[in-house]
UniProtKB/TrEMBL annotation:
Domain Acyl-CoA dehydrogenase/oxidase C-terminal: 225-355, 635-786
Family under the similarity heading: Belongs to the acyl-CoA dehydrogenase family.
Pfam families assigned: Acyl-CoA_dh_1, Acyl-CoA_dh_M, Acyl-CoA_dh_N
Domain Acyl-CoA dehydrogenase/oxidase N-terminal stretches: 8-78, 412-523
GO-annotated molecular function: flavin adenine dinucleotide binding; oxidoreductase activity, acting on the CH-CH group of donors
Protein name: Acyl-CoA dehydrogenase
InterPro entries: Acyl-CoA_Oxase/DH_mid-dom (IPR006091), Acyl-CoA_Oxase/DH_mid-dom_sf (IPR046373), AcylCo_DH-like_C (IPR036250), AcylCo_DH/oxidase_C (IPR009075), AcylCoA_DH/ox_N (IPR013786), AcylCoA_DH/ox_N_sf (IPR037069), AcylCoA_DH/oxidase_NM_dom_sf (IPR009100), Mycobact_Acyl-CoA_DH (IPR052161)
Cofactor(s), names only, from the UniProt record: FAD
Domain of life: Bacteria
Organism: Pseudomaricurvus hydrocarbonicus
GO cellular component, one term: plasma membrane
Length: 790
């Protein structure tokens, strides 16, 4: 089903629901079970919704789970209360599997004339228990009654007094699915209220079944598995829609509501909570979309780990969004005169139905492909190809830049395999990231050595145009490039000359600057650091005070920079300086290139909490800098500095470091025999699911940038923010899982593995600070993504 057709379906559904549905009808009925609004059910039948997932041979549209889930997202966003999933989608899976046997039933479902409900569950908190106490006792053919039904079903949704129940029961031949009228003899129905409908407990006592089973045996089990999987994905989409609807309603409210003569949205705490809601909504959207795609491609829906993850994620997000939205509406949010509470109620209903998050995450862990507890990924193994020559050259004869050719012309798979082979042959095994140093960075001579190997082999500067000595890769191949570096365990390199200064000069530098500096960056003759932050201007770069006064053909620079990463390993610094005074602080800033050997410069390393000297202070005392080192126009350095932050946040947001930290989590659980501890396993499962969903969001945003060809926008702040905080949660879990060993500073041996948990925990602290503190990222999301007024 094409995306264009699905989008048309979504737009028409949104228009109908906005025009025809009065959500006030859901108010004033707390605790009262609700049945279908038959007029609205008939209207959506005429719109073709009820037969959306039925095969065309049965009068349906055959549009599949992706279309159905997309419709459910709109249903959630618009607070539509009719039981579409329970009353149409899940029954349609059963009837579709039954084929011609269910032709009349399918016709009744599509037209809206017959109201179906699927009755499968018997116990509380069942996820996929397809064995039943309810029994179908078949009679010989030819009688007026096909057999009798005995047993009880619980938490049945969408039961109508004159409807039809599709009941899963056991027989000597295996599972059977039979259709029985809800008003048949021997049936008792007891309803309890939910937010938008009801649960029913249905008891069968010598209940006559007039038709033989629609499905029986393995075919019945497969149909039930599919119905549950489709129901969960659709429910995840509806929950994601509820969360987005709550967010949109809340943003409208806080943007208009005023307190203390200010819009509520101008309070940072309010804006940040809205930003967090938006990030989680995007995660839920990515999760259910990926699960729907996986269901379309599999014959074993019950084995789709992404289905369980999507339902768990969306349930948590929708209930969180509902609670936050009520809070931000204040006292009004606690009344039924306000619509916002309806989102929370509906979220509670669908979060509880078809599996709660804890149980779903256990199923996710049981079905996902993951290393066994205690398994160690050895990134140093499997190396093949030429050996490294310790002079910095490779032994491959065709590894120079000229013979490397245009690698962007390779297919993605050819490019991936060529890079993978090169890394296996050329990156030193002893420098790879491992459990002891999962966040390893190369410094000083090691960094220069590796970068020169890349340069000599034609693998340097993937984003630079080829005419400037780079690889000229598309954004999609840049993603593959970074993925393969991480897959191979290549230690990270803070190469600001390549990642920041080079692209800045290519975009805004003069011809002379490009000719002079770019080759020296590539061959590591120049090693650059970034001079932005100051003692009283961390993330607030507009408040910097380091001055540069023009004196003839030179600037005289005075001031101080701080948190300058690896300045003690660098030869040069690109820095922001104050060159003019304007009413707007962002004006009057210029971008200068400075040789760190210039008289008047002092570099003082600062030990961080991990005991390393990554950060430095840089002092400028009447430092004279040639005017030709000005990049861009005078007083326009703010524009220069902002030009590359988007790409930086994409690479910082990579899931790779989190993956390595979680591999250590698995190792620790096994070593401490916590893999049998339910509490520890549940927390580990939650972290694994968080990473699973984040990978989906990361891929979605990166694919959108690659497909559109546009520059990264403010949405990449979501990547940097969520990834950094998830990494911290994982390292904190590891320290707690290690018990007393978590308090050891330095190397400690746990089992057969040497680990420095203190180093890892401390090295994860600054990830929420650098490249713009996460509080600043939340401001960006609130203002630029959510369009909240300042």
């Amino acid at each position: 089903m094409s995306d264009d057709i699905i989008e048309i379906l979504r737009e028409s559904a949104s228009d109908y629901l906005q025009a025809k549905v009065d959500i006030n009808e859901q108010k004033g009925h707390v605790g009262l079970p609700r049945v279908r609004n038959r007029q609205q059910w008939q209207e959506i039948a005429e719109l073709g919704w009820l037969g959306l997932a039925l095969p065309e041979s049965q009068g349906g549209s055959g549009m599949g789970i992706k279309a159905a889930a997309s419709l459910c997202e709109i249903i959630g966003r618009r607070l539509f209360a009719e039981p579409y999933i329970a009353g149409a989608l899940m029954p349609s899976v059963i009837l579709g599997a039954a084929g011609d046997v269910a032709a009349d039933s399918a016709e009744g479902l599509v037209s809206g004339a017959v109201h179906f409900a699927l009755a499968w569950q018997e116990q509380v908190s069942e996820a996929d228990n397809l064995t039943y106490g309810t029994r179908f006792e078949a009679f010989p053919e030819g009688g007026q009654v096909a057999g009798m039904l005995h047993g009880r079903k619980r938490f049945v949704c969408a039961v109508e007094d004159d409807g039809v129940l599709l009941v899963a029961a056991t027989t000597p031949e295996g599972t059977a699915i039979v259709a029985v009228n809800a008003n048949a003899d021997g049936i008792t129905v007891q309803r309890v209220a939910t937010a938008q409908g009801h649960y029913a407990e249905v008891t069968f006592k010598n209940t006559p079944v007039r038709d033989y089973p629609l499905l029986q045996g393995a075919v019945a089990d497969a149909a039930l598995e599919k119905a549950l999987a489709w129901g969960r994905v659709a429910a995840a989409a509806q929950l994601a829609g509820l969360a987005r609807g709550a967010l949109e309603t809340t943003c409208d409210y806080v943007g208009q509501r005023r307190q203390f003569d200010r819009a509520l949205s101008s309070f940072q705490s309010v804006a940040h909570r809205c930003a967090d809601m938006r990030i989680n909504v995007e995660l839920a959207d990515a999760a259910w979309s990926a699960a729907a795609l996986e269901l379309d491609l599999t014959e074993r829906p019950a084995a789709c780990a992404s289905v369980y993850a999507a339902k768990a994620r969306a349930g948590e997000v929708a209930t969180m969004a509902g609670r936050t939205a009520v809070q931000l509406h204040g006292a009004m949010g606690f009344t039924e005169e306000c619509d916002i509470g309806l989102f929370l109620r509906a979220a509670m209903q669908y979060n509880s139905w078809l599996g709660v998050p804890t149980g779903l995450l256990r199923q996710f862990m049981a079905h996902t492909i993951q290393p066994e507890f205690g398994a160690v990924t050895d990134n140093s193994s499997g190396a093949s190809g030429g050996e490294m020559d310790r002079t910095g050259q490779t032994t491959e004869t065709e590894s120079n830049r000229e013979l490397a050719g245009n690698r962007d012309a390779l297919t993605d798979e050819q490019f991936r395999q060529e890079l993978r082979t090169f890394l296996a042959a050329n990156f030193p095994a002893e420098w790879r990231q491992n459990f002891h140093r999962p966040f390893r960075r190369l410094r000083g001579e090691q960094q220069v050595h590796w970068l020169r190997i890349l340069n000599d082999s034609g693998w340097r500067a993937p984003a630079w145009p080829r005419e400037y000595g780079g690889m000229g890769l598309s954004f999609r191949k840049q993603l593959i490039y970074h993925e393969e570096l991480e897959h191979a365990g290549v230690a990270r390199v803070i190469d600001l000359g390549e990642s920041q200064l080079g692209p800045t000069l290519i975009l805004l530098g003069s011809d002379e600057q490009r000719a002079h500096y770019l080759p020296k960056i590539l061959n590591c003759e120049h090693v650059w650091c970034q001079g932005y932050s100051e003692p009283n201007a961390g993330s607030d770069l507009a408040s910097l005070r380091t001055s540069a006064v023009l004196d003839g053909d030179e600037f005289v620079v005075n001031g101080q920079k701080i948190w300058t990463t690896h300045a003690n390993d660098s030869t040069h610094i690109f820095t922001l300086v104050r060159t003019g005074k304007y009413e707007k602080k962002q004006q009057g800033i210029s971008f200068l290139l400075i040789d760190l050997q210039t008289p008047g410069i002092t570099v003082r390393p600062i030990l961080n909490l991990a005991g390393e000297d990554e950060f430095c202070e840089v002092f400028f005392d009447n430092v004279r800098v040639p005017r030709e080192n000005l990049v861009g126009e005078l007083d326009q350095g703010w524009k220069v500095a902002k030009s590359l932050l988007g790409y930086e946040r994409i690479w910082i947001g990579s899931p790779a470091l989190i993956t390595k930290a979680l591999e250590l989590s698995s190792q620790l659980l096994a070593m401490r025999e916590l893999d049998i501890d339910c509490g520890a396993r549940d927390r580990f499962a939650k972290l694994c699911a968080d990473l699973h969903d984040y990978r989906l969001l990361y891929a979605r945003i990166c694919d959108d940038i690659a497909d559109s060809g546009r520059e990264p926008g403010p949405e990449v702040s979501m990547l940097k923010l969520y990834a950094s905080e998830l990494l911290q949660r994982v390292t904190e879990f590891n320290v707690e899982a290690a018990a007393e060993w978590g308090g050891v500073v330095g190397d400690t041996r746990i089992g057969d593995t040497l680990i420095d948990l203190h180093w890892q925990l401390m090295m994860s602290r600054p990830v929420t600070i650098f490249a713009g503190a996460n509080e600043v990222q939340r401001d960006i999301i609130a203002k630029a993504v959510l369009k909240l007024p300042a």
